[in-house]
Amino acid sequence: MAQIEAAQADTVIAPSLLAADFARLAEAAESVAGAVDWLHVDVMDNHFVPNLTLGPPVVKSLKAATDVPLDCHLMIEDPERWALGYAELGAHNVTFHAEASADPATLAKRLRSAGAKAGLAIDRDTPVEDYLDLLPEFDTLLIMTIKAGFGGQAFMPELLDKVRTARRHAKAGHLELRIEVDGGIAEDTIARAAEAGADAFVAGTAVYGADDPAEACRRLRSLADAAR
Amino acid sequence: MAQIEAAQADTVIAPSLLAADFARLAEAAESVAGAVDWLHVDVMDNHFVPNLTLGPPVVKSLKAATDVPLDCHLMIEDPERWALGYAELGAHNVTFHAEASADPATLAKRLRSAGAKAGLAIDRDTPVEDYLDLLPEFDTLLIMTIKAGFGGQAFMPELLDKVRTARRHAKAGHLELRIEVDGGIAEDTIARAAEAGADAFVAGTAVYGADDPAEACRRLRSLADAAR
After folding, report:
1. CA angle, B115 as apex, B113 and B116 as ends, to 5°?
2. Which of A26, A54, A60 sits opposite B58 (nearest CB)?
3. Chains A and B: how many Cβ contacts under 8 Å?
4. B133 exposed, middle or buried (CB, 10 Å; 0-12, 13-18, 19+)?
5. For B96, phi and psi rounded to 5 degrees?
6. B67–chain A nearest CA distance, Å
7. Most buried of A47, A185, A208, B61, CB within 10 angstroms?
8. Which value, to the nearest 10 degrees, does the dihedral of the CA atoms of residues B71, B73, B74, B80 take?
9. Residue contact A51–B64, C-beta within 8 A
10. How far apart are CA A145 and CA B172, in angstroms?
């Protein structure tokens, strides 16, 4: 269990490729490199969520195309079967859904052994309280601020209560835990998420819908830093 | 039911993007445009096959990136739920697996109504005889010449018996039917598949593993034409 004494981690900005041009992902990565910390990769399988996006062959090509660490968010069934493959392809974070996993703590250990950071994601309707005891096993807790499955949805501020609960718990336990928010994060919402205790921010449309994606990332970072 | 009197259709060459660089799909399309008829898009969902590749958001970006008709091969469960979405995104062909469909004939009608060509795919272990009566409902019959799920597998010549059976049946019924072969098609195998009665050829590694993908397509076409 990694522990720190209240040192505040740097803000992480993670543009979501879900809002990028999938025919030009290398360019999408290049357009934000230098202004971001992670690239958020939304993996969906038609089963855990009603959409199918991309999987290992695309992650493999992305890994070869960019040096930006890949933040793989697995919105898929049976992560016990598939998650390790993403670690082996060189993903920086492998985040799977609590709702889909039979044994999150064991899977987290396997991911860490494979050299990846382990992330636990909880969807809109999942209480964070059920998973607080598992947090020492994880590097990242991803809290959906929309319902998982599609980009472009509106931010749901009431879900920030989960962020507050998780941050309080992490502070009390001296856990070095990233809390990542995903869904509807943009210039008008990022400060609220940062104030609630999030320190990693997924943004899709707010980045790739902007004329200058790198500049959009810098503005998001500055808003988050000010709020934290 | 479309009928022709023994006019031989032109050879179709359909490079499979499964062997391309997924971070640069627009370039992969561009590199063969003018030398090919379709781009073959392998959609896999972790469930029908043990791999996850790409889905609608990627097809949407591809459609915007290239004028080459998209030949979407759905290796997914529940095509009744998902296939129509690919037609609506502008796929030229939407081919689903017989093994995954509850009612292939009805789905074919819906796809044609949506403006797409309807394709029926049968995996390595599925007898073609079970589906001959359905062929009038389809524009394309895709016969796997490997086990569906991954690129790079070796061609299985014994599966060409299915191509012969289907071509005989189509000729006898005056059906205008494309017979597409998928798996291990390369310069050393394409002639055998063409002789057996195939007229559409998916090639992955043989195209995108070549120094000059367009030239590789021209050579494949010339070998197929000579054999037919």
Report:
1. 105
2. A54
3. 111
4. exposed
5. -120, 165
6. 13
7. A185
8. 60
9. no
10. 59
pLDDT in tens, chain B (228 residues): 344 444 578 999 999 999 999 999 999 999 999 999 999 999 999 999 999 999 999 999 999 999 999 999 999 999 999 999 999 999 999 999 999 999 999 999 999 999 999 999 999 999 999 999 999 999 999 999 999 988 888 999 899 999 999 999 999 999 999 999 999 999 999 999 999 999 999 999 999 999 999 999 999 999 999 999
- Please count the CA atoms within 13 angstroms of the CA of B119 that sit on its side-chain side: 32
Q: Which helix (H) or strand (E) covers residue A179, if one does?
A: strand A178-182
CB B23 to CB A56 under 8 A? no
Which of A37, A42, A71, A139 is flagged as catalytic?
A42
Q: Which amino acid is at A77?
A: E
CA distance A155 to chain B (A): 21
Q: Structural domains in chain B?
A: 6-212 (3.20.20.70)
Q: What is the pLDDT of residue B6?
A: 47
Give the model's pLDDT for residue A7: 58
The per-residue pLDDT for range A148-167, each reduced to its tens digit, is: 988 888 999 899 999 999 99
Separation CA A54–CA B211 (nearest Å): 26
Active site residues of B: 42, 182
CB B47 within 8 A of CB B77: yes
Q: Could you say which of A52, A61, A64 has the minimum Cβ distance to residue B45?
A: A52
Which pLDDT tens digit goes with each residue over A137-150?
Answer: 999 999 999 999 88
For residue A166, which of A128, A130, A201 has the smallest C-alpha distance?
A128
Q: With a cut of 80, say whether residue A59 has pLDDT above it.
A: yes
Contact A92, A69 (CB under 8 A): yes
How do residues A64-86 score in pLDDT, each as one tens digit? 999 999 999 999 999 999 999 99
Residues of chain A with Cβ-Cβ distance to B24 below 8 Å are: 24-26, 61, 65
Return d(Cα B151, Cα B205) in angstroms, integer: 8
Is A42 one of the annotated active-site residues of the chain?
yes
A186 Cβ neighbours under 8 A, 6+ residues apart: A155, A203, A205, A206, A220
